[in-house]
Write a structure and sequence with these properties.
By secondary structure, this protein is an alpha+beta fold. Helix content is about 30%, strand content about 25%. The longest helix has 16 residues. It holds the Pfam family ABC_tran.
């Protein structure tokens, strides 16, 4: 089973539960580590189960998914039910407001960063994962001073290993890899000392 994708492992678990005769399925953040395609497949399976009379509780902070899958939505805050509403009358904005108790901005402006010199350069980084399988395969990237570089990916796809290689906690398995970083003093970063 460990050789299956996370989405396939999840479907195996659902089949095992159904085989045992369960009529209620509780899913807590089931899409957290799934690819968009695996999410679509999971939702297809869940809708099929719904049509066969199964009861499903879908717990998630991903509002689009909750809206697309649910018939009714119950919002919890501080361990209390704030409200239960029909998915037809719900919007992302309304759900977010109920979840946090105030208006939530969905559009955030990101001004262009003024980039300085390369603060980190990685070329040809390879690293093994915990199960002795390649976790990083020829990673090349540069991060410049004055920049925040976001790393996106489904959990288990090398993000942790990349952070560990950069921090020096995991070795690159490629002897010809290039790893260059400059160190900024506390004065260059603008961080005030205590």
């Amino acid at each position: 089973v460990w050789q299956l994708s996370v989405g396939e492992q999840q479907r195996v678990e659902i089949i095992k539960i159904l085989y045992r005769g369960a009529s209620l399925l509780i899913l807590d953040e089931p899409t957290a580590v799934l690819t968009p395609q695996e999410v679509e497949e999971l939702f297809r399976v869940l809708r099929s189960m719904l049509n066969k009379g199964y009861t499903i509780i879908f717990i998630s902070h991903k509002l689009r998914e909750v809206l697309s899958l649910s018939d009714r939505i119950t919002i919890l805050r501080d361990g209390h039910v704030v409200k239960t509403i029909s998915a037809a009358e719900a919007t992302q904005e309304k759900l977010a407001r109920l979840m946090v108790g105030r208006e939530v901005l969905f559009q955030v402006e990101h001004p262009s960063a003024e980039l300085g010199r390369a603060g980190l350069t990685l070329e040809g980084i390879w690293a093994q994962g915990d199960e002795d399988r390649p976790a990083l395969r020829g990673i090349d990237l540069e991060v410049y001073s004055g920049e925040i570089l976001g790393i996106a990916g489904v959990s288990g796809n090398g993000q942790r290993e990349l952070a560990e290689v950069i921090a020096g906690l995991r070795k690159s398995t490629n002897s010809s890899a290039v790893f260059k970083a400059f160190s900024a003093s506390i004065f260059e970063t603008g961080i005030k000392g205590s």
